[in-house]
Amino acid sequence: MSQHEQDDQEREFDLTWADRAEHKEPSARARMLAARWKENPPGPVPFRPEPENVSSRHRSPWLSTAVVLGCVAAVILLLGYLDFRAP
After folding, report:
1. What pTM was computed for the model?
2. Is 26 in contact with 34 (CB distance < 8 Å)?
3. pLDDT single digits (tens) 33-67
4. String of b and e for 4-21 (b: at least 16 CB within 10 Å)?
5. Three-state secondary-structure class, residue 58
6. Is the CB of residue 68 less than 8 Å from the CB of residue 62?
7. Beta-strand runs (E) in the chain
8. Are 57 and 51 in contact, with CB atoms under 8 Å apart?
């Protein structure tokens, strides 16, 4: 057995041993947040926060449709006018 194959087997053994561990070390971010929240716990957060810009949500969905169709009609008319004026 070559050295490379032996290293791969040892690494696989170490990974399976680590996966079976009963206690797993939290990540650095988790430890940082736990320390921060111990002194200053976060407030409650709603599942779906209130939207910041409510006025834009109450626009009619037909408004955007009308704008798109108006732009398409304007392009068609412009192309027709340019074709009509071409010699």
Report:
1. 0.33
2. yes
3. 999 999 998 888 777 766 676 555 566 778 889 99
4. eeeeeeeeeeeeeeeeee
5. coil
6. no
7. none
8. yes
